[in-house]
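Example record

The entry below shows one chain as it appears in the dataset: sequence first, then structure tokens.
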Amino acid sequence: MGRLKSIPPILSPELLFTLASMGHGDQIVLADANFPTSSVCRNGPKEIRADGHGIPELLKAILKLLPLDTYDSHTVTVMQLVSSDVDRIGRPKVWQSYESIINEEEGRSIALNEVERFAFYERAKTAFAVVHTGETALYGNIILTKGIVE
């Protein structure tokens, strides 16, 4: 792939095209290594592979180009822990990383919206695309809602 100025090299041509094709309100899922990406994408979203990359590094690169929605109070969504994992895992550490990256890149504080596991899967089926990553952190999945470029 040829290099471009100011484009993070972690973003593949396919992912760049997808981000450019998204409109206001469209959603993109950054899925961890355990996420059933191929099943979710069977009849809906575009499947993009980013195996070997973690979500935090992809998130930081994506947010250099993709504005988050300012009209939706739930512009960033994560998968809520299953009740049996709450005591065992606690709040996933990767979420703090997401919040830090999002707040830095957006220049504003954005809360993570938690959605029940199966509701998250259903929401993912309506996304514009699902990026399957090599992220190994449990509950690493995140949905971003695209805003407008002002």
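Notes for this example: The CA atoms of residues 47 and 130 lie 5 Å apart. Strands lie at 27-31, 46-50, 76-79, 113-115, 129-133, 142-145.
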